[in-house]
Amino acid sequence: MVSASGNPTTPVRQGEALDWAGLDRHLKTVLPHLEGEPGVSQFAGGNSNLTYRLKYANDDLVLRRPPFGTKAKTAHSMSREYRVMNALKPVFPSVPNTLYYSDDEAIIGSEFYVMQKVDGVLIRTRLPAEWNLTSSDTRRFCTCFWEKLIELHQVDFRKAGLGDFGKPSGYAERQVLGWNARYERAITPDVDNFATVRAWLAANMPADTVRHSILHGDYRIDNVILDSNDPCNIRAVLDWEMCALGDPLMDLGSSLAYWIEDDDPVELKHLLVQPSNAPGMLTRREILDLYQHRTGLDTSNFTFYQVYGYWRLAVIVQQIYFRYFHGQTQDQRFKSFGTAVQQLGSHCRNLIAA
């Protein structure tokens, strides 16, 4: 393969600077090997938690903290992210090395954790042209990508020390009722209430499954770091803020909500965040068949999980848009998020009607 750029950073966005000098002093007391003054930048991707790069003379670090402004009560827990990555590392090596966590808000105004930056390639909406991937190459990459999620779902979370990480029983009910309630709290005057979608999900929840897994919660191509010499080698899975224990098919449904295909409705094509429509990529049906073949779980009737995935994404986008609508963030990327919520909610209605 070729050398390609990693996850790009930009100058820190307006209103999202931290007390860099105070942070540097603190980090050098808990990570005494650090040398020099850090070069500070911000990762351009991500719509929720804030992620910064701290480039020291002898180490390259990444800091994660919650967003500014109103947040869902149980969302954006840095301690959960930090704990699950620590526990998974020995049994699921595709996670970054974590270094330090603090709940002392006096340092930067919130809890945070620090991990080592993973070298490699992060892909956004297009596969790098210089890779010259054929359709067969892309299909192989796509298969490896989904097999990584399958690998995670097959981890024995109890042996990993995560048996008390959550309550897997009743997961579907908690998720549906929880996302419905979050949407009610985040509604703005320019979006529909989608009451029929919320009611349908509450009335069509599957029976509690006996198969429980570690769920990533936000598994997408742009949340993995690839080996620059072999895109089928996933060096790290990022963004564990929504990790939980529960029905793995709900995690699959959440991930497929981001999977846009060429023959999808126009309103979905506007939401493309990863190159899922590149020639050679698996279709949603092929992904479901692969998942069933590898795990033995029946994916033939996936309507509930499909609607749930799109609705959950709509609520996440609306929570972010709520902060923008009320002036709690100036990030102009969020200006059109209200329109995206309308498109996702309407798609849920169409799936239910079909």
Describe it.
It is a single chain. The protein has 10 helices and 10 strands. Helix 4 (171-186) runs parallel beside helix 9 and helix 6 crosses helix 9 (303-325). It starts with 8 loop residues before the first strand and ends with a helix. The protein folds into 2 domains: 9-116, 2-Layer Sandwich (Phosphorylase Kinase, domain 1); 129-353, Aminoglycoside 3'-phosphotransferase, Chain: A, domain 2 (Alpha-Beta Complex). The strands form 3 sheets. It has a 6-stranded antiparallel sheet with strand order 1-2-3-4-6-5, covered by helices on one side. The longest helix has 23 residues, at 303-325. It has helices at 20-30, 78-88, 135-153, 171-186, 195-203, 248-256, 266-269, 284-295, 303-325, 337-353, and strands spanning 9-10, 39-43, 50-55, 60-65, 98-102, 112-116, 213-215, 224-227, 230-237, 244-246.
According to CATH, the fold-level topology of the largest domain is Aminoglycoside 3'-phosphotransferase, Chain: A, domain 2
Strand order of the largest sheet: 1-2-3-4-6-5
The CATH architecture designation of the largest domain is: Alpha-Beta Complex
Shape: globular
Structural class: alpha+beta
CATH superfamily of the largest domain: Aminoglycoside phosphotransferase (APH), C-terminal lobe
Total strands:
10
Distance between the amino and carboxyl termini: 44 Å
- Tally of contiguous helical segments: 10
Largest sheet, if any? 6 strands, antiparallel
Can you identify the CATH class of the largest domain? Alpha Beta
**Approximate helicity band:** 25-40%
Unreliable residue runs = 1-5
Radius of gyration: 20 Å
Number of domains: 2
H-E string: EHEEEHEEHHHEEEEHHHHH
> Into which percentage range does the β-strand content fall?
5-15%
**Mean of all residue-level pLDDT scores:** 93
